Amino acid sequence: MIAALVPVKRLQEAKGRLAELLTGDERRRLALAMLEDVLRVLQAVSRIDRTAVVSPDPDALSRAEELGAAPLPEPPLCRGVNQALTHASVVLAAQGADALLVVAADIPAALPEDIEAILDALPERGIAVTPTDDRGTGALALRPPGVVPFRYGRRSSVVHKREAVALRLPARVLHLDSLAHDVDEPNDLAALLAHPAETVTHRLLTELRIAERLDAVRSAPAGGESASTG
Q1: What are 37-75's pLDDT values in tens digits?
Q2: How far is Cα 184 from Cα 4, in angstroms, rounded to an integer?
Q3: What average pLDDT score do residues 195-211 get?
Q4: d(Cα 74, Cα 23) in Å, to the nearest integer?
Q5: Which CATH architecture has domain 2-219?
Q6: I need a labelling partner for 1 at 20 to 30 A (CA). Which of 66, 94, 116, 194 fits?
Q7: What's the gap between Cα 93 and its chain centre?
């Protein structure tokens, strides 16, 4: 059985680097919109037997359940995403998963064919990893679940590969465009808008008139100074 898992942090902490463009409530709505897009893509891949979301946030878990994903509450003693993923991978393995695909919650442009590609590349025992533009991890497939420790954080795709090599396991690296672009900063929103798509995230960005907000930020004088040299 192949299980897919999406980790989601507390919504009140979501996308802090977008605070210059979005209010706290808007960042929360954006996080939920991106989660919906990711879950719908995973559910479009027929060989994924189970999709789950691990989170400490009850609203995120409730939305995941509404969308047909299994909600996995993050235990109170978990500290950070790596411990949360370790807990969830144990739960899913106990439910029969012999392979696990972890996908970031902030990659709304993900495509089913790229999910299929990373599953195709997954060794009989080992990992397949898709780096993001900054060498983070857009998607990580493991067989069996937990075959290497989770090392999400700075340059995590490199560290995940290093963990597999240290254990003498195959680690296949795939550069898949739709899984390489996570949304953390204003420039990421601009890049997303440059590629229109029928996603919940794109509809929200249109509703919020993000293109106009980005233009306003770009045209503002540096440092808040007057444009006049007086």
Answers
A1: 999 999 999 999 999 999 999 999 999 999 999 999 999
A2: 22
A3: 91
A4: 26
A5: Alpha-Beta Complex (3.90)
A6: 66
A7: 21
